[in-house]
Design a protein that fits this description.
The protein has 91 residues and is mostly helical. The protein contains 4 helices and 2 strands. The protein has helices spanning 2-9, 27-40, 61-72, 76-87, and strands at residues 17-19, 46-48. Strands 1-2 form a two-stranded parallel ribbon. Helix 2 links the parallel strand 1 and strand 2. It is globular.
């Protein structure tokens, strides 16, 4: 049910998705969740989010970050450029 709703959200032109807050202990769930996210949303609309300090409730920052690097590689759009664009930051 939630997948159908997320697919509808993915059609909205001004929607960005912060990727964080997943339970890293369940590796299969995380793998499926991140694959769904990558397959559903425009890659230019996905934003890295550390979820710090809340991440400490279910994981370490290092584990959380490595999980995202495993899923997204070192994609500069995901880890930086998309947020710069979404928030209108100037360097």
């Amino acid at each position: 049910e939630w997948c159908a709703v997320m697919k509808k959200f993915a059609t909205l032109p001004n929607l960005y998705v912060k990727v964080s807050g997943f339970p890293t202990a369940d590796k299969q769930f995380v793998s499926e969740l991140l694959k769904f996210t990558r397959d559903t949303f425009d890659p230019k609309k996905l934003l890295y989010a550390s979820n710090w300090p809340v991440v400490k409730l279910y994981s370490s920052f290092d584990e959380h970050f490595q999980t995202l690097r495993d899923a997204f590689g070192d994609d500069e759009d995901f880890f930086m450029n998309n947020a710069v664009r979404a928030y209108g930051l100037k360097f």
